[in-house]
Hints:
By secondary structure, the chain is α/β, with parallel strands linked by helices. It has helices spanning 24-28, 34-43, 77-91, 109-122, 153-175, 183-193, 206-211, 215-221, 275-289, 335-350, 363-369, 381-394, 405-408, 427-436, 472-482, and strands at residues 2-6, 14-19, 53-60, 63-71, 97-101, 143-147, 200-204, 229-236, 245-255, 295-305, 317-319, 325-327, 354-359, 374-378, 398-400, 418-419, 444-449, 455-456, 466-467. It has an eight-stranded mixed sheet, with helices on both faces. It has a six-stranded mixed sheet with strand order 1-6-5-2-4-3, sandwiched between helices. A three-stranded mixed sheet has the order 11-12-16.
Amino acid sequence: MKIEFAALPSVTDALVLPVAKGTLDAAIDGRAGKPTLAAAASSAKFDGEAGGLVEAFVGDGDAVQRTLLVGVGDNNDADWEKAGGAVTARLLTNAKSASVDLSGAKPSPAAAAGFAGAIVQRGWRIDTYRTKLPEKQKPQLAEVTIAGAPDGTDAAWVDQDAVTTGLDLTRTLVSEPPNVIYPASFVDRVKASVEGLGLEITVLGPDEMGKLGMGALLGVAQGSAREGRLLALKWSGKGAGDPDLALVGKGVTFDTGGISLKPGAGMEDMKWDMGGAGAVVGAMKALATRKAKANVIGVCGLVENMPDGNAIRPGDILTSMSGQTIEVLNTDAEGRLVLCDCVTWVQKTHHPKVIVDLATLTGAMIISLGSEHGGLFSNDDGLADELLAAGKASGDLLWRFPMSDAYNKLIDSPIADMKNVGPRGAGSITAAQFIGRFVDPGVKWAHLDIAGMVWADKPGASHDKGATGYGVRLLDRFVADNFEK
């Protein structure tokens, strides 16, 4: 979808008028068809609530203009985002173009850019495999002109558009079926998507990872005919040198549970068990696209967890790249096995000061937080606060959980250095404690369990049902606020 900024609204299929709460009369004063708009708003009990929308067809001379009143609530960034998404939800399949007049609403530059971003983001769909989609259900909205934006919107839009391109990559990877996206094809898709952006790309196959001793990650991969991969994208926006920040993503492109087989019902959802890796590559694309002045590396551990005759078994012991040994009690607790070797690899090769990992790690997180917040675990209070703040600012919300030695003892093994699962209680916490054992002293680290966030059963402000792209906006804001100063 194309966004254009202009001084005046253009002639399009629909005119959109943003309305802040309590300002309806001022918003439609002097407009063609004011009585009709006022009557439509009154009938719908509309008074500018965020994301609320009223549609009317009003006379304008000899023509009839389709006009939408969209609520921007209290005029804050989040309310403008809701408004942008509402516009696209209404027009996506039944208008080819729209014009938005911001002159009466006076948003901030960030709010105006976020509004435009939500218009584009809410229109993302993947219809690749729908060969008989009815014409009236196909997306039509191709161009939106935004008039009257405040000074500074163009610069804000550059950053917002970069995030939107990152979201597009993440959502596509998460949505594709597992026979299309597997470790090798994930790498190929990402390399093609970021070509020319200046990212330094490293790919390790089974032989290279075997020589490095990455027995935990390779242990998960060994049950599949699809070989595992490690993918790293390095962005050096401040110049040469080690990255200050490492983003590490769990990339299980399909998770059957392995020998500890998951129930059949709902297993098809496990194509998005690579949502952490998807968020990492989307964020790295956004950072490179907007030329972020930060040194960041994104690392993805890519495997498929399958139950063939060569798969790891409950009771097996794996040796990780760190040299620590792991007793496998449940092969469906595989994500932490992938992450631990990636965390070790990035520390040994790139020496970041801060590590943030993202993973659709535990079902217990969904029980705890549903689909409203991602779980946050950290060994540093300052880092945790920075991530919480970035979550609030971006809309990708987080909630912090405790960590302590008491929980750590729950994964001690009588036969190895640790076991890969603890008891039923505190399952998300013990999973985080497991990863924390691989973080070097002095390194600030946070683990984000995003199991309930990467896929949605209902539309949100800037996404339809399906892949949300959760994590891209969060990570981009986290970098902007803490590594580009």
